[in-house]
Amino acid sequence: MASIEDLTQDDIDKMEKALDRYKKENEKFRTERDEFKSLADNNEANKALRDRALKAEAKAKLTEQGVKDVDRFVKRLNFDSVSLDEEGNLSGLDEQIDGFKADFPEVFDAKRRVGGQIDSGPRNPTETSKSTTERQLDSLPFFNR
Fold first, then answer.
1. Residue 23: pLDDT above 90?
2. Which residue range is the domain that position 27 belongs to?
3. How many other C-beta atoms can be found within 10 angstroms of the C-beta atom of residue 104?
């Protein structure tokens, strides 16, 4: 490379033009980078909204089928395998719920949920009303039962 003293005005003009061209390219790349960042941020926001909507739909379906502890099953769902078809229906969620039904039949079948209890009556006995004679005896001070 030539020394600085050997540079002509033509060489300096060429370098300035190249510098301007590189500045324009750099500005273009910065603009693209900013666009990609905003798209990535929007994509993350959309993913968060999608996950919330899918969880709400899954909770509704599980509650509809009689599951008491819905959150226990929603944690185990794989929402990456759930997709939305053209008609707006979820595909992949029913298959996972069917898998839960196979693994935990006692949760989904009402007969099995109650079947473990021998007496399905109330645990506390009901209060019976006292007869007139019993109430009269209770009011007597000398009669202690």
1. yes
2. 9-114
3. 14
